[in-house]
Amino acid sequence: DETEFRNFIVWLEDQKIRHYKIEDRGNLRNIHSEDWPKSFEKYMKDVNCPFKIQERQETVDWLLGLAVRLEYGDNADKYKDSTPDGAKNADNTAKNAEPLINLDVNNPDFKAGVMALANLLQIQRHDDYLVMLKERLTQDAIAKASQSKEGLPVALEKHILGFDTG
């Protein structure tokens, strides 16, 4: 809502962006004023936001991006070597393990996924879906599938595309 939006803008300026000096933030902090939209518009011009104040989602995204850039700039050494949570463990796991080692082939979702894939690829069904996978994923089957070319060649210059490629 409007009050939350205004509070959010004030919080971003006070805590992260800090474009104005503290004493110059009064008009922006007065969120119940009827002149707040004018103050906000001036603020957007001052921080060089390319969006109009009516484009709220774009403005919020842009201001958040600015806040992240400024936060990183203030603490570059702190964030320079950081990685997302769990990324270190995931990297070590990926290096030390087969990619599909944690796959549960008895999971009903896995079986349903295999059957859906078989339908999509028009693979003949088998009672044991693991056998079906093994038959279609052998090196010979993959080589044969990559060699076969079906269909007729199409002369694109004879078709109207609906646009000019230049």
Automatic annotation (TrEMBL):
Q: What is this protein called?
A: RNA transcription, translation and transport factor protein
Q: Which organism is it from?
A: Setophaga kirtlandii
Lineage, broadest ranks: Eukaryota, Metazoa, Chordata, Craniata, Vertebrata
Provide the family line.
Belongs to the RTRAF family.
**Gene from which the chain derives:** Rtraf
Q: Which Pfam families match?
A: RLL
